[in-house]
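We now fix the convention by which a protein and its fold are recorded. Here is one such record, which you should read through line by line:

>
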Amino acid sequence: MNLGDFHRQLITQYDAECGCQIGSTEVIGLVLVSAFWGFTNPFIKNGSKGLEDVTAKHIKMGSSWWTRNFAEMRFLFTRWQYVVPLLINLSGSAVYYRTLGSADISIAVPITSSLTFVWTFLAGLLLGEEVGTTRL
């Protein structure tokens, strides 16, 4: 059984159980969305390193809320390590909006959420982040 046959069988079985329908175009869109969202999360986190220092500096100086927030935004949006993954992440939102127009939301949300978690985990491993804990 090839992947296409497996996909058709899975979709047909799911359709029979809940009356829902989702096509291969929607599946591809949802996988892309989850990749855009999940894979960029650790990169956005890494790109924002140092933001705490900016915040602490402005709190220590007694800066106003507006001044502190402007400094934080300037710090983030002048770092390509933050902006590039953010733009990719936001393009995932555009694909998601487009895909939801034709996909059943009761299928789209769980698929996207689950796969986003998987992509985030894989990207974290790639970046060398610690996974889990040994304590129970």
Observations:
- The radius of gyration is 20 Å.
- The mean pLDDT is 85.
- The helical segments are 3-18, 24-47, 51-61, 65-77, 80-100, 105-126.
